[in-house]
Write the structure tokens for this entry.
Amino acid sequence: MNQSSASADRSGRLADARRGIRHVFVRDLVLHARVGVHAPERRAAQRVRLNVDLAVFETVTDTGDALGNVVCYEDIVGGIRAIVENGHVNLVETLADRVAAMCLEDGRVRSVRVRVEKLDVFEDATSVGVEIERAQPDA
């Protein structure tokens, strides 16, 4: 990725017609996850919010209105749910890395940005968490 496209991606703009990139996203998916290092977090699931942004290489510009020609956000959500249901993790960073790795299994996904937020940690904060970005090795 060159400097100008990296700057564009950091600004939140992922879709780019010149590079043949489509932006697929999942917004504000709230799930109960077992994540955390403290004893209460190990005993019970807590609410987490996930946001996922994918830069997807358009292998076809005319999708033919066929689901098989696009990266399906339903599959992304299903994959996230499966990861969360797979058991306890200590760190939100680990959860974010697993979600990113799952998204990158589809070779059309050039890069992925994942934000994981714990929603009920501090009374005086809406959320705490992490945001990561990962890319295909050749992107």
About this structure: The first helix runs from residue 3 to 10. Residues 3-135 form a domain with the GTP Cyclohydrolase I, domain 2 fold (CATH 3.30.1130.10). The mean pLDDT is 89.
